[in-house]
Amino acid sequence: MTPSHSDTPNDSITLASIENGLEVGNKLEEPPIHRVATEPITLERWNEPRINLYRYLSALYSFIVLGMNDAAYGIQLETYYDQTYTTISLIFLSPLVGYTLAAFLNNRIHNRFGQFGIAIITPLCKLAVYVITCFHPPYPVLPVIFVLAGFASGLQDGAWNAWIGNMKNANELLGILHGTYGLGATISPLVATAMITKGDLPWYKFYYVMVGMAVLELVVCGLSFRRSTGANYRSLTTKTTDASAPESNTKEVLKTRATWICAFFLLCLVGIEVSLGGWLVTFMLVVRHGAPFASGLVATGFWLGLTFGRIVLGFITGKIGEKLAITFYVVMCMTFELCFWLIPSFISSAVFAGWLGFFLGPLFPAAIVALTKLLPKRLHISAIGFAAAFGGGGAALFPFAVGATAQAKGVKVLQPIALGLLAAMLGLWCLLPGGFRKEGLNRVQQEREKRERAGGSLNSETAADVDQDAEKGSARVLGTSE
Predict the structure, then answer these.
(1) Looking at the DSSP assignment, which residues form a beta bridge with residue 92?
(2) Are 77 and 168 spatial neighbours (Cβ–Cβ below 8 Å)?
(3) How far is the first Cα of the chain from the last one, in angstroms, to the nearest whole number?
(4) Which of these, 379, 414, 388, lies nearest to 400 by C-alpha position?
(5) Could you tell me the pTM of the whole model?
(6) How many CA atoms lie within 13 A of 248 on its CB side?
(7) What is the pLDDT of residues 275-311, one digit of tens each?
(8) Opening angle at CA 188, ends 186 and 193, nearest 5
(9) What single string gives the DSSP state of each residue in 327-354?
(10) Which residues pair with 44 in a beta bridge?
(11) pLDDT tens digit string along 32-61?
(12) Disulfide engineering: 440 pairs with which of 66, 270, 426, 435, CB 3.0-4.6 Å?
């Protein structure tokens, strides 16, 4: 039951009337829930305390491994196993099960085991997948074991995005974090292609490298997060959440429109990244008739562009506002995607692929930052964890769709599918409140915080009303009673 300063629920009232109501009722004791929820919160820094530095660096390394994992899907599997595109695409689809599990279990694992649980569970899952893959088992085994890879990726994606997204200078720090993902995705096809084409090694030898990377991740992350236990996590979160809030805020998060908009935005985005990264080599070989090594370099250029885009544009996005910046980036992506599709030149395609990656780069971090501004802090862990893990399912769903469609129409369908996903992303991004002014999202955040200070509770309907008012530049908020 949400406290209300009006006798009639769902009435529209002004901030002035809210303040007057508070003055009239200040003789009454304010419930503890509001004192807890409105205490000033000091944001963590990436290098303070000192252990945060090691933890942040560990998260960066884990995202390098994550990028190498995603970019290595499907390398030469169709020729080794002599299977159709549709059958091979199952290896992209199976991690979706793991991502789905991660979306709903992330918060529970945090509460039970803390960040230390994430730091141990995720590399162990990856290690199991890579060791089995090294023995190049029959193909039906691969889609099954890659469910574990999806689960590990979903947990990591949600956990480290939520943690870093609540730090000071989150936009820049998330840009660097996702830049390391791009770095790993850049290294992966380059190393795999060199091993296969220059070293004349079978595809599964690449996973020997991944085993070593996963072992190092287990050691580094385990040591860095060893004190971040479940008890420690619960003690920290109770300082920034309502006293009456349940252990898990997942149900409440699923009722907010902003969470679902960002989740579907990330679903399309990750789908484009992994679809292009996974099928780009095949596209350049079959459609652009390139040499194997040169085609591998095109995929490397795509991931390299994405890496630089996340790092460079991450520092620009906040200066011009997330809404306007990301709209511009998506439009540029659509432009380069059209050029990639319609200009049948190997060299031109290689150049456009790099620029496409560059403008795709900052989109994921910006969506996380937008979500932190649209929702109260007590929902950040659950909301960001869910949106990131749900969005990570795009790494499974859309590459499978490309492969299944390519079986009937040819791998040239990659480009129109990517263009359609970009158009969907543009539409979803425009649905977020705040308009396209630099301070639009900040204004929405301020309106929400004003209402919270007035003693209200944020539900999905109220959030939508506050968002609409903020877009119009109104100082009015809507009060609702549940």
Answers:
(1) none
(2) no
(3) 6
(4) 414
(5) 0.74
(6) 15
(7) 887 788 888 888 888 888 888 888 888 888 988 998 8
(8) 105
(9) HHHHHHHHHHHHHHHH---HHHHHHHHH
(10) 167
(11) 333 334 444 566 788 888 899 999 999 999
(12) 435
